[in-house]
Amino acid sequence: MERLKCVRCPLGCILKVKVTKSGIEVEGNRCPRGEEFALQEIENPMRILTTSVKVLGGALPLVSVKTSGAVPKEKIKELMEYIKSLEVKAPVKIGDVIEKNILGLGVDLVATRDCDER
Ligand code: SF4
C-alpha cells in the first residue's frame, strides 16, 4: 500500500494506493480525478517544473520560469541541468517563451515574471 497526496486540486486528498494484478485500488479520493492521479503517479509521474534562468543585462540576475505543462518526473534532473546552461537577454516579459519545446518534451519554458534591462 502506497500513500500519495493528490495534487489535482487544493483539497489534497491523501490516497492509499494498492497495485493489483488487474490495476490499482485507490481509497481516500473524494472525486474520480484522484484515481486518475494515482494511476499516472504509478505509471508515469509528471510535474510542472518551476525554476529560474540567467538574465544578461537585466535588473535582476535571474528570472523565474516554469514549463507550460507537466513533464515526466524522470526528466526533471536533465531539464534542470539544461536550464542551468540557458541565458536570456533582458528585457524579459511575463509569458515570454524562453525555449520552445524544451528538450523535445512538447512543452515550452515560459517566464513567470518581468525582468527589465539594467
Ligand atoms: S481526489 Fe479529487 S477532491 Fe481529492 S485532491 Fe484529488 S482532485 Fe481534489
Give a structural overview:
The chain is α+β, with helices and mostly antiparallel strands. The protein has two domains: 2-43, no CATH class; 50-111, Roll (CPE0013-like fold), CATH 3.10.530.10. Helices cover 18% and strands 36% of the residues. The protein contains two helices and ten strands, in the order E-E-E-H-E-E-E-E-H-E-E-E. It has a five-stranded mixed beta sheet with strand order 8-5-6-10-9. It has a three-stranded antiparallel beta sheet with strand order 1-2-3, covered by helices on one side. Strand 5 and strand 6 form a beta hairpin. The longest helix has 12 residues, at 32-43. The radius of gyration is 18 Å and the shape is elongated. The mean pLDDT is 96. It binds iron/sulfur cluster.
Summarize the structure.
Helix content is 18%, strand content 36%. The chain has helices spanning 32-43, 76-84; strands at 2-5, 14-20, 23-27, 46-47, 50-56, 62-67, 71-72, 87-89, 97-99, 109-111. The mean pLDDT is 96.
Mean pLDDT: 96
**CATH architecture designation of the largest domain:** Roll
Q: What would you call the shape? A: elongated
Largest sheet properties: 5 strands, mixed
- C-alpha end-to-end distance: 54 Å
Task: State the strand order across the main sheet.
Answer: 8-5-6-10-9
Number of helices: 2
Please provide the ordered H/E string of secondary-structure elements: EEEHEEEEHEEE
CATH topology call of the largest domain: CPE0013-like fold
Proportion of residues in helical segments: 10-25%
What's the number of structural domains? 2
Q: Which ions, cofactors or small ligands are bound in this entry? A: iron/sulfur cluster
Structure class: alpha+beta
Task: Kindly provide the radius of gyration, computed on alpha-carbon positions and rounded to a whole number of angstroms.
Answer: 18 Å
- Provide the CATH top-level class of the largest domain: Alpha Beta
Q: Write down how many β-strands occur, each being a DSSP E stretch of 2 or more residues.
A: 10
Low-confidence stretches: none
Indicate the proportion of strand residues: 35-45%
Full CATH superfamily name of the largest domain:
CPE0013-like
